[in-house]
Structures are given as C-alpha cells and as structure tokens.
Amino acid sequence: MRKLKITELGRLTADEYRTSDKTPLAVVLDHVRSLNNVGSVFRTADAFRLEAVYLCGITATPPHAEIHKTALGAEDTVAWHYYRETLDAVAELKRQGYTVCALEQAEGSISLERFVPDRREKYAVVIGHEVKGVRQEVVDACDICLEIPQYGTKHSLNVSVAAGIVLWDFFRKLYHPVFD
Fold first, then answer.
1. Is 177 a residue whose pLDDT tops 60?
2. Are 128 and 157 in contact (CB under 8 A)?
3. Which of 59, 62, 94, 104 has the fewest CB atoms within 10 Å, counting from its CB?
C-alpha cells in the first residue's frame, strides 16, 4: 500500500469549498475556552462540509493564530457566526428549522449509537465548555440531548474529540454519501 500525496487527494480549493453544497448540520460552541479546540472543530466542520460553526460567549473567533494552528485555514472557508449569548444562537437555529441537540450527560439523554436522526431534518449540535459542559439553561432550550457512551473511569472527552465523534456520526447516519 502506498500513502497518497496531498496532490492526489482531489480536495476542493477554498473557493470551490465556499460554493459547494453543504451538509445541513451546524455546530455550536457554548463558552469553549481552548483556542485549539475551536480550531479543531473548524477543521472537522470543513472535513464534513458543515453549514456553519456558531461561536458563543467566551469562545474566541477568527482570525487568531492559535485557532489557525489547529484549523489550518478551515476558519477561512467554513462559515461562522458569533453570538454573545448561546441561547440567541439556539433560538436563531430553531427559527431556521434546525433540531438543536445538546451533547451532554443528562437525565433522558439519548445514547449516540441509539439515536436515529430524520434524514429530512437539519440538525445543530451544541458542545460545551471543557470543564462545565453545556450550561443547563442551554440544555433546557435544546430539543434533545445526546450522550456519547463511555465505559472507562473518566466521565468526559476532550471537546474536539467529542465533536469529531458526534459530527462524524451525524454525517454517517444522515448524509453519507451525499456528495458525488
């Protein structure tokens, strides 16, 4: 097996990406403090051609060198919006017809492997602060709560790891293969 060169991958240019069809999926960062996590989420959003990243509260916004370090330019191609209040972002997404899902361990949460999304719907996933998670008032405003099953001694995953898992799962279940 030969490892492919970057020139053999057939990736979109930045201009092609901006005008391409997007996966009807958005991600909302609720007071995420690590700029590396923000950059990683941008890069994951680019990989699955998400519609947008919503940056809320203390979450930093581009342009920023620390975001760029992990985003590698995805912050320049993926649409993003800043909201001072996460609840305003959630309300706007609901107005646009999104089903908004909090990614959090909560009473009544649905384990990700058992969640069956409706292919006719648009979804937004809210991911929270590295220590505090998604704030309760935001969980209350969401339509559903999803949880990534975990079986070890730790009770949480890194923000960018959790984002990668849940965004891939949505993409796989809903939209793959959506781009021909």
1. no
2. no
3. 94
Which backbone phi and psi does 12 adopt, to 5 degrees?
Answer: -70, 150
pLDDT higher than threshold 70 for residue 120: yes
Whether the Cβ atoms of residue 105 and residue 155 lie closer than 8 Å to each other: yes
Other Cβ atoms less than 10 A from the Cβ of 158: the count is 13
Starting at the edge strand found earlier in the chain, the sheet holding 110-111 runs 80-83, 50-56, 23-30, 122-128, 98-103, 144-147, 110-111
Write the CA distances from 30 to 64, 65, 131, 155, 171, integer angstroms. Answer: 18, 21, 12, 19, 21
- pLDDT tens digits, residue range 59-118? 999 999 999 999 999 999 999 999 999 999 999 999 999 999 999 999 999 999 999 999
**Chain centroid offset of residue 109 CA:** 18
77: Cβ–Cβ under 8 A, 6 or more apart, which residues?
Answer: 14, 17, 18, 46
Domains of the chain: 21-175 (3.40.1280.10)
pLDDT at 131 over 50: yes
The residues facing 81 across adjacent strands are: 54
